[in-house]
Amino acid sequence: MIDYLNQQEIKTDPATVFRIVNMFKEKELLQSIQLNERKIRYELSSKPYHHFVCEQCGAIQDISDFSIKAVEDEIQEKRHIKIKSHSLEFFGLCKDCQNKTN
Ligand SMILES: [Zn+2]
Q1: Mean pLDDT rounded to a whole number for the chain
Q2: How many Å lie between the centroid of ligand 1 and the Cα of residue 57?
Q3: For residue 50, what are the CA distances in angstroms to 14, 28, 58, 59, 101?
Q4: Ligand 1 center to residue 32 CA distance, Å?
Q5: What distance in angstroms lies between residue 52's CA and the mean position of ligand 1's atoms?
């Protein structure tokens, strides 16, 4: 991953990359695959994932515990389509940032 970022001339320090990868793993956005080699590979998790991103501090909150099944059902019924998967992102201000601006 670091090699890839270097190739793209994206300057970052490894600690930051690992911190972000670990956060994505904790949130089950990424899953690690260990093949018979010295490196660890990551792939995007297939689990439906809903999250909120704070536009000010970049904090990501998992909001998968809020069901959007009703919305999905409504879309399927009204549009006569079959939804197999989805991704949802909400953007705004987290609680801390709202308190800072007030
Ligand atoms: Zn924030």
Answers
A1: 80
A2: 4
A3: 27, 11, 15, 14, 26
A4: 28
A5: 10
